[in-house]
Amino acid sequence: MTQLSAMSTLHKCGALTPGQLAAKEGVQPPSMTRVIAALERLGYVERHAHPTDGRQAIVELSESGREYVEATISAREAWLDERLAKLSSDERAILSQAAEIIERMAGR
Description:
By secondary structure, the chain is mainly α. The protein has helices at residues 2-13, 18-25, 29-42, 63-85, 89-105; strands spanning 45-49, 57-61.
C-alpha cells in the first residue's frame, strides 16, 4: 500500500525529491528511501540527478510505473461505475450530496 500510495503521489504531482515525497506521504525520509529503492527494483520509478542541487535526486515514475498506476485507476473507476449503475437516481443524488459535504469538510 505504501508503494502504491507513493506512486500515486508521483503520478499526481510529477517528479519530486525523496524528501518532498516523504513529506507528502507523511512518512520519515528513511522510510521513503526504502520505498523508493523497492520501486526502483521493480522498475516503477527512476531516480535522476537534481538539476540544481548535486546532493539530491529527483524521483519520477517510469513508463511502466505510469502504466501500472493508470491501470489501477481504471480498474477502480470501472468497479465504481458498475456499482453506481445499480443505484437508483435517488441514491445517486444522496451520494452526490454526501460527496459535497465530505469535500467541504476536507477543506477543498
